[in-house]
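Pasting as-is:
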Amino acid sequence: MVNPIPTNLLPRLGESYFYENFFNPSESDVYFERLKNEISWKQEPIKLFGKTIMQPRLTALQGNPKMHYGYSGIRMNPDPFSDTLLAIKKRIEPSAGVKFTHVLLNRYRDGKDSMGWHRDNEKELGVNPVIASVSFGAFRDFHFRLYETKANKITLNLGHGSLLIMKGKTQHHWEHQLPKRANIVGERINLTFRVLTS
């Protein structure tokens, strides 16, 4: 069953669609436990403003092993898709309208783990990339804002089993973040499916 398309969250210059309960609670529980235990999680060093620091989260990459992915000075070599991730990918592709080649996984161990303001605009993703973000585990707030003016801030609560699809010109004009939150003690696993073009 294909979920009905929700309203575009962005007022202009992009398209982002939020499916609050794309996966039901019981299947979300199963996927969260499988991903926590099946994935080879790593903490990688990244370059920010000329300095090398450890990422404030754990990561992994799966997908086509012939195509590598990099950001912030990291070059990631993908593992093949697991059965768990293939099942999730198959579920979300009809709503996203594309066949994904890779998934970047992020594991936020508590509220001290985070993701700073950024755009998913690496050249490997093509001109107008489609990014599908699936969340399992603890609820975390997620922010959009216009890249050039830092205005029009939009806040979402990404919950257990939710799906956010970003497409069109979103990565040109909007940036996003997952901020630190001291009151969050639970873990969150985020899957960002994408299409690598080179």
